[in-house]
Specification:
165 residues; alpha+beta; seven-stranded mixed beta sheet; two-stranded antiparallel ribbon; 4 helices
């Protein structure tokens, strides 16, 4: 009986200690929260910063990374919004001459084609929602970045700008 009471008391103390953060972990996030911050809540894709350097200005987009063919096929289909600081990057492995369309894509997008030198080759600006007309790259493509339609022009992003991820 004493053993059971000690076990109950120990369990209660452990529960109380587990509910209140101690000085050692004040200001830190548990590993699960840190990992969750790097995954998009809708797509479940990893989020990485993508930086476009236009002149002396750097524009950073928190971008969902579409790596697999299934992830790339779905892209931003059915999404009703993305933030002006968000995007989706499609890594082309191996590089190819990409062509994108807007099947099942609800919002207008700027589709930015990135060449082998990591510079913007061309931009399909304000691609129309649901339009299945292929929008091609101007040459071999290392990556494609999608952002809100009209945002590239608004920010002064243009062919020749450097893209890093």
């Amino acid at each position: 009986m004493k053993q059971l009471n000690r076990l109950a008391a120990f369990s209660a103390l452990a529960l109380i200690a587990g509910c209140s953060p101690g000085a050692a972990d004040a200001g830190t996030k548990p590993p699960a929260q840190s990992a969750a911050a790097a995954v998009h809540p809708v797509s479940g894709l990893q989020i990485e910063p993508v930086t476009i350097t236009s002149g002396k200005t750097a524009h950073v987009f928190k971008s969902e990374v579409a790596r697999t063919s299934a992830e790339q096929a779905k892209g931003l289909m059915f999404r009703t919004e993305i933030g002006d600081d968000e995007g989706m990057i499609f890594l082309r492995n191996p590089p190819d001459v990409a062509a994108f369309w807007m099947r099942n894509t609800v919002i207008p997008l700027d589709i930015i084609f990135v060449g082998l030198d990591r510079r913007i080759m061309n931009i399909a600006a304000n691609a129309r929602p649901y339009d299945e007309t292929p929008l091609p790259a101007a040459g071999p493509t290392l990556a494609v970045l999608e952002i809100n339609g009209g945002l590239a022009a608004k920010l002064g992003i243009k062919p020749g700008d450097k893209v890093d991820w």
